[in-house]
């Protein structure tokens, strides 16, 4: 993953008015949807799970049990700032974009009351993630066996999967969705935290 | 019934519907006027306004008829008026002014009298016969006492010789305008216009009427009658103001006659002729006296010309001196010495030249200002509020109409609309009042007058342009709901040609923006063909932006406008 080609920005990214909120509502809607697409593509390409409100990627948070995040060095570059044409989005505009994503179910504030904690960017929807994990387990013949969370997220077998190294909190929400759909059972240890799952 | 009147001439109108002024000043204008020939109405001339100038009386239709050949606007020479009478009106009949015309005119129409010189058949002395005497002979050819005698030998001139001379001098054809082919050639730009045009299609310059028509009088339609009085013309006043008009007309007629006399030097001439000459006019003495007088005249003339020449020479010397200093400067430009000295010299010289130029310009300006002043003076007299038709600004309809015509002429003469396609009312107001200098118009008057442009069918009109006075940088940071609330739907009044529409201008603006890669309003203003008021331009661009036709980029330097690439962008 280290020698991945850099993200290719769309031509619109170099268009100065793209960084100013357009007064015409139709243009603004188009601008907004292009920003949403850009953010999703950018995060997917760079495997960014959490974005700070100012557009820089955030690392896995402290409650992650394995903060030995070896591959990911957070860059300070913000998607909302285009150095090449010297333009950046004003905070209120970026907030509007992120809120739009939340309302569309493409993102979720980690803490709605404290935006600084960051925002999950769902470049696949939770449903899609759940299906993807389910398919993978099915394809690799691991049904009805108990898997630890670590095995799925960091295991050798899932190394090439897109959900590899997924953010912990996000991963748990995916698992919870699977349970709800009846695809999996959670196995908790004595203090209530999730120890593993069993896909049925 | 049609008849041909010798007194009325076709009056040419400027494009604003005012009579073209031929070196005259307007004194008064009166609305609601009808014309009578004798006791009968001129059918087509019953609703118009009359302009009284110091030379003419001009009737102009109120309905602004522009078709050629169809009941022309009429002008009456004040010099043809013999006497005038006032009738105050009774019950249903309106007040009238009766003009008794000069009877002489109908016999010797349009004869331009000239001095005639005749050679004495006895001594071959070249005698001069002054204009006044020619007139006398023409009016009464039978009276032998009118015929001159030779100034040297005293032999009376043979009558048939004099009459023949007068005839040839009078019947000299009038120099005509260039009329080639089917069209009228414009004096200004030489474009050949269709005969029905009143103004040049290319430059808007007023076209002279067909010269052939000028002298023939006009055919007028009169109420059915056989015995109308050719020499009486009546002006009927359907509205008030007849008394004032009568007073002004009376003095104007007198002044016109007086001016005519002074112009043709007849007053002084009369004085000289009346004095009995101390030197006998006959024989050798007479010859001597004539030569002496001639010598004196020519020496006077020479003196004058020598003085002029001297003035010219001194000017020329100054110029030569100036050019020499320039030359020396050019020569010594390589050697730096004495350069400052030269510069100082040149500065000094230039100063005097500039002074001369300055004085020329000021005199020019003064004469211009005087003209404007006289124009506005008579307009001022109309300003009195009338009870019947009060406008928004409280002035009579007639005043506003006339003001509108003047403003229109002002716009045309100053070529305001050539420099920029749109002129705001603010600009027009300040420019017009600056030109007037004195007795300024109020904004309301101007507004009323400009609003009249449409009803007067000028090709210039007032438009309302919605003024988007929202700050774009505010707008872009507001939520859409708030945005609509804060929109200020102000209006701005602008003057432009009738074919102007804000949408077509906006389209052109859009085209220009689309070809450029980011442009500010200032940049647009510098673009050729878009030179218009900054406020209007910025308002239009903002409107385009609000409509989503263009995109805006707010930088530190301000707002820059781009082609809307966001809306049509396709993600690949």
From TrEMBL, chain A:
SUPFAM superfamilies attached to this UniProt entry: Winged helix' DNA-binding domain
Gene Ontology, cellular component aspect: ESCRT II complex
Molecular function GO terms recorded: protein homodimerization activity; structural molecule activity
Keyword list, A-Z: Protein transport, Transport
Superkingdom assignment: Eukaryota
Any one of the GO BP annotations: ATP export
Entry's family note: Belongs to the VPS25 family.
UniProt cross-references to PANTHER family, sorted A to Z: VACUOLAR PROTEIN SORTING-ASSOCIATED PROTEIN VPS25 (PTHR13149), VACUOLAR PROTEIN-SORTING-ASSOCIATED PROTEIN 25 (PTHR13149:SF0)
Record-given protein name: ESCRT-II complex subunit VPS25
TrEMBL record, chain B:
GLUE N-terminal domain mapped to chain residues: 11-265
UniProtKB keywords: Cytoplasm, Endosome, Metal-binding, Protein transport, Transport, Zinc, Zinc-finger
Major location (coarse): cytoplasm
Keyword Zinc attributed: yes
Annotated Pfam families: EAP30 (PF04157), Vps36-NZF-N (PF16988), Vps36_ESCRT-II (PF11605)
SMART domains listed in its UniProt record: ZnF_RBZ (SM00547)
InterPro entries named in the record: GLUE_dom, PH-like_dom_sf, Snf8/Vps36, Vps36, Vps36-NZF-N, WH-like_DNA-bd_sf, WH_DNA-bd_sf, Znf_RanBP2
Subcellular location: Cytoplasm; Endosome
One CC-aspect GO term: ESCRT II complex
Family matches, as Gene3D superfamilies: 6.10.140.260, Pleckstrin-homology domain (PH domain)/Phosphotyrosine-binding domain (PTB), Winged helix-like DNA-binding domain superfamily/Winged helix DNA-binding domain, Zn-finger domain of Sec23/24
GO BP field: protein transport to vacuole involved in ubiquitin-dependent protein catabolic process via the multivesicular body sorting pathway
Gene Ontology molecular function: phosphatidylinositol-3-phosphate binding; ubiquitin binding; zinc ion binding
Subunit architecture: Component of the endosomal sorting complex required for transport II (ESCRT-II).
Assigned protein family: Belongs to the VPS36 family.
Function summary: Component of the ESCRT-II complex (endosomal sorting complex required for transport II), which is required for multivesicular body (MVB) formation and sorting of endosomal cargo proteins into MVBs.
Name of the protein: Vacuolar protein-sorting-associated protein 36
UniProt source species: Kuraishia capsulata CBS 1993
């Amino acid at each position: 993953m280290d020698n991945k080609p850099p993200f290719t920005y769309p031509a619109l990214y170099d268009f100065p008015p793209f960084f100013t909120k357009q007064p015409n509502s139709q243009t603004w809607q188009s601008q907004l949807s292009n920003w949403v697409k850009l953010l999703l593509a950018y995060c997917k390409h760079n495997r960014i799970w959490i974005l700070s409100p100012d557009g820089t990627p955030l690392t896995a948070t402290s409650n992650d049990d394995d903060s030995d995040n070896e591959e990911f060095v957070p860059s300070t570059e913000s998607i909302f700032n285009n150095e090449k044409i010297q333009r950046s989005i004003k905070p209120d505009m970026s907030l509007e974009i992120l809120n739009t994503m939340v309302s569309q179910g493409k993102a979720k504030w980690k803490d709605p009351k404290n935006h600084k904690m960051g925002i999950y960017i769902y470049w696949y929807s939770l449903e899609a993630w759940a299906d993807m994990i389910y398919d993978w387990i099915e394809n690799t013949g691991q049904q009805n066996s108990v898997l630890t969370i670590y095995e799925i997220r960091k295991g050798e077998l899932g190394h090439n999967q897109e959900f590899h190294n997924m953010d912990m909190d996000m991963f748990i929400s995916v698992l919870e969705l699977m349970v709800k759909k009846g695809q999996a059972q959670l196995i908790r240890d004595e203090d209530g935290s999730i120890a593993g799952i069993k896909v049925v | 019934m049609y008849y041909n009147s010798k007194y009325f001439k076709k009056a040419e109108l400027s494009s604003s519907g005012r009579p073209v002024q031929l070196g005259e000043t307007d004194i008064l204008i009166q609305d609601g006027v009808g014309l009578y020939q004798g006791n009968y109405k001129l059918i087509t001339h019953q609703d118009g306004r009359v302009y009284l100038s110091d030379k003419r009386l001009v009737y102009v239709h109120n309905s602004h008829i522009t078709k050629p050949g169809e009941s022309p606007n009429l002008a009456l020479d004040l010099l043809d008026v013999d006497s005038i009478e006032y009738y105050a009106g009774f019950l249903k009949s309106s007040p009238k002014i009766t003009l008794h015309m000069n009877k002489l005119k109908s016999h010797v129409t349009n004869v331009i009298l000239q001095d005639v010189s005749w050679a004495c058949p006895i001594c071959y002395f070249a005698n001069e016969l002054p204009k006044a005497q020619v007139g006398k002979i023409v009016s009464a050819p039978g009276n032998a006492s009118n015929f001159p005698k030779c100034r040297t030998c005293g032999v009376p001139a043979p009558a048939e010789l004099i009459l023949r001379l007068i005839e040839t001098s009078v019947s000299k054809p009038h120099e005509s305008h260039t009329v080639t082919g089917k069209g009228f050639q414009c004096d200004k730009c030489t474009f050949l216009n269709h005969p029905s045009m009143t103004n040049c299609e290319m430059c808007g310059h007023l076209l002279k009427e067909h010269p052939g028509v000028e002298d023939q009088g006009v055919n007028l339609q009169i109420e059915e009658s056989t015995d109308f009085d050719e020499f009486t013309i009546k002006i009927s006043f359907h509205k008030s103001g007849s008394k004032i008009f009568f007073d002004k007309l009376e003095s104007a007629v007198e002044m016109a006659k007086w001016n005519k006399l002074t112009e043709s030097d007849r007053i002084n001439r009369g004085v000289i002729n009346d004095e009995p000459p101390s030197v006998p006019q006959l024989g050798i003495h007479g010859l001597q006296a004539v030569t002496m007088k001639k010598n004196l005249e020519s020496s006077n003339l020479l003196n004058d010309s020598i003085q002029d020449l001297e003035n010219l020479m001194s000017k020329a010397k100054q110029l030569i001196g100036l050019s020499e200093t320039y030359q020396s400067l050019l020569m010594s430009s390589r050697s730096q010495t004495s350069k400052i000295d030269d510069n100082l010299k040149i500065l000094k010289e230039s100063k005097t030249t500039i002074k001369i130029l300055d004085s020329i310009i000021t005199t020019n300006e003064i004469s211009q200002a005087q003209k404007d002043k006289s124009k506005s003076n008579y307009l001022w007299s109309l300003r009195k509020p009338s009870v019947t038709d009060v406008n928004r600004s409280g002035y009579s309809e007639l005043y506003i109409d006339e003001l509108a015509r003047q403003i229109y002429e002002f716009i045309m003469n100053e070529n305001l609309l050539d420099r920029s396609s749109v002129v705001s009312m603010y600009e027009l107001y300040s420019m017009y009042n600056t030109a007037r200098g004195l007795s300024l118009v109020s904004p309301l008057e101007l507004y009323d007058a400009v609003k009249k442009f449409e009803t007067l069918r000028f090709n210039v009109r007032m438009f309302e342009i919605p003024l988007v006075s929202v700050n774009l940088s505010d707008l872009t940071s507001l939520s859409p709901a708030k945005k609509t609330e804060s929109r200020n739907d102000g209006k701005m009044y602008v003057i432009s040609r009738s074919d102007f529409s804000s949408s077509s201008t906006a389209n052109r603006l859009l085209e220009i923006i689309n070809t450029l890669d980011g442009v500010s309003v200032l940049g647009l203003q510098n673009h050729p063909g878009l030179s218009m008021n900054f406020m209007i331009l910025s308002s239009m661009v903002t409107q385009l932006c609000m409509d989503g036709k263009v995109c805006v980029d707010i930088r530190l330097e301000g707002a820059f406008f781009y082609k809307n690439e966001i809306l049509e962008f396709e993600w690949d």
